[in-house]
Amino acid sequence: MWQESLALREAGWEVHVICPRGATQDTEPEAVIDGVRIHRYRLRAATGGPLGYLREYGTALWHTFRLARKVGRVDVVHACNPPDLFFLVARALRRRGARFVFDQHDLVPELYLSRFGRGEDLLYRAVCSLERRTYRAADVVIATNESYREVAVTRGGKRPEEVFVVRSAPRVERFHQVPPDEAARKGKPHLLCYLGVMGPQDGVDYALRALARLRDELGRTDWHAVFVGGGDTFEAMVALSRELGLADSVEFTGRIPDADLLRYLSTADVCLSPDPLNPLNDVSTMNKVMEYMAMARPIVSFELREARVSAGEAALYAPADDVSEFAKLIARLLDDPAERRRMGEIGRERVAGPLSWEHSKKALLAAYEAAYAARSRR
């Protein structure tokens, strides 16, 4: 979203961002960064399952509407999900002539199925209804990949010319090599790295179990692993690492500054993308995969449709959810530095070339032109 904001500002738009405040940083209610005005509100993260998310999303919707009215006249409401509720804000501002660009970062029905495991119950049907209403209200839809675009056209009923693929591509200038930090290896020959959110559907537990298999089944203790990021299951994953006897081999950093992130990624021999197969992960583009490739790191992933589309030969793919095979692929790369270099170079070239932000930026600006053209026809 930040890259989209900067691209729109560079194209001549006045950009206002409405979002929650951070817990330990970005706590100011208002800020102007690189010419983008940011309006923040307090938000308590969801706890207690689906009802907790209803409270969180309801609070976010109210504050977003309140701050949007404070901004004044708005030409475009550009809303990313989840939740699929911001069409209500767009409809309220449409009376003043605003267009609605729906930036679909998640397929919420698939997210619901993958996160809660409750099946197609009443809440599932509710989120499906909200998605349909959001599609219907949108002048154009921005999809993060071709799988999401297909859903917008088939399930969402959007015309193909109303859906634009804007990939979440890292800025190459932000993700750059720095000198490796041998101290990060904690005295071991190799460093493994996980970067990203730690939620129920993100597979950190699969990664930890694979590391336990790497040690127990393959006899490999020549590695140290660092897990960078936070999320709903952070404390549970720390506890699981202790339960598996990995406390001395695995380090959890929480969220860290960019300088530390670059230091870990520049030192890492292999990066982990352990997202399990589920309805959401199979069709989603993982930011961490793109960021690993930007840092020229080889990747081990489970076999997922969009993971292969993104990484190609920059990753090795274990059968879905098979932690023993995942461990074997890690070991294979640890033993083959030439292959690690080759895969890293392929990934870097993909992010700098066909998957670069420059391509996505053109699609973003084309989506805005289409939003205006669509409203003019109506």
From TrEMBL:
Lineage top rank: taxon: Bacteria
Pfam families (alphabetical): Glyco_trans_1_4, Glyco_trans_4_4
Keywords, alphabetical: Glycosyltransferase, Transferase
Keyword Transferase: yes
GO MF term list: hexosyltransferase activity
UniProt record, GO biological process: carbohydrate derivative biosynthetic process
Every Glycosyltransferase subfamily 4-like N-terminal domain range: 7-165
UniProt name for this protein: Glycosyltransferase WbuB
